[in-house]
Amino acid sequence: MLSEHPQFTGNIGSFNNNSFNNIVSFSTERDPEGRQILQWLSPLEPQQRHQGVRVNRLDGIGNWVLETNKFRKWSGADGCVEPVLFCDGNPGVGKTYLR
Amino acid sequence: MIDRLCDQAGGGGIAIVGLYCDILSQQEQSTTSMLGAILKQLVSRGEIPEHIWKAFQKAKKEFGGRGLRLPDIVEIMKKVIAGLSRVFICIDALDESTPKHRRDLLESLREIVRVSANTRLFLTGRPHVGNEIRRCFCKVVRIPVSPRLDDIRSYLEMRLDSDTDPDVMDDELRADIMRVIPEKIAEM
Fold first, then answer.
1. Which of A22, A43, A73 is closest, CB to CB, to B44?
2. Partner residue facing B2 (CB), from A20, A37, A90
3. φ/ψ (deg, to 5) at A74
4. B54: buried, middle or exposed (CB in 10 Å: 19+, 13-18, 0-12)?
5. Distance (Å, rounded) from C-alpha B30 to C-alpha B98?
6. Strand partners, B144
7. Pick from A59, B77, B95, B162: CA 20 to 30 A from residue B135's CA?
């Protein structure tokens, strides 16, 4: 999985922008107390589900959402946009699998 | 969404974190554990901040090792987010959390976004949660998602090409599948 994102490998501990890739490495590299603190913050591990979604996702599908002006504006660096973007749809339309 | 944002971010103090609500995990996905999981990802990026160490040490000494409460998490998150340049919080399938957890989660996020101009929220869910989201945040950008015909065709082609039993497939059956399934979905 990491090999798909070469820019994120080999720099564990740096100020990395992808928490999902790093959290496992961090929790194994941390001292026991660091691990205890992370566990204290929450027992949930959402990155595990994320890996599953990523494996099953077919690249390109749903990309039209990411090409909309609404998405571009929301994710862009312009400070004066609405902070909340909501993608709604019926079950099974592919909301979870947007890249 | 998370991966696209990560590709786009390219480094610096940009944090992209996420959460998948799951109807089968409603029991363990309390508001506290859900928001805590977002906070955990934010602090997993580097050294655990001093104020969190201190809060943990204090909680450990208290009766039975006190767990975090929702207001504590909100306050810690505000501090952590203030140290970052931009934060994207992505939450999938809000409709799969219980109405109470969802309300508390949205209210906590509203409070965080109110004081954190660098924070954006990406939420997905069935249409009915839209009203709850709009009640919490006065303006919401909405993108309704429905499957596109070319997406359905690409997906079908991928599935047919990866069929583990290709001998039972012939051109006619393949053509029927490629015709009928998109037609049926378009009618939905």
1. A22
2. A20
3. -65, -40
4. exposed
5. 9
6. A88
7. B77
Chain A residues whose beta carbon lies within 8 Å of the beta carbon of residue B110: none
Cα–Cα distance between B93 and A91 in angstroms, integer? 9
Task: Using a pLDDT cut of 90, give the percent of chain B over it.
Answer: 65
Q: Mind spelling out the 3-state secondary structure of B97-140?
A: CCHHHHHHHHHHHHHHHHHCCCEEEEEEECCCHHHHHHHHCCCC
Q: Do B145 and A89 touch (CB under 8 A)?
A: yes
Nearest 5°: the CA angle B181, B182, B186 is 120
- pLDDT score for A28: 52
Name B188's Cβ contacts closer than 8 Å, sequence gap at least 6: none
Which one-letter amino acid corresponds to residue A75? S
Nearest CA to B31 out of B91, B81, B88 is that of B91
DSSP code of residue A84: E
Measured CA to CA, the distance from residue A29 to residue A13 in angstroms comes to 9
- For range B5-9, the mean pLDDT: 84
Return the structure tokens found at A35: 């691990």
d(CA B9, CA A23): 18
**Weakest-pLDDT range from A2-16, A80-94, B146-160:** A2-16
What is the complex's ipTM, to 2 decimals? 0.87
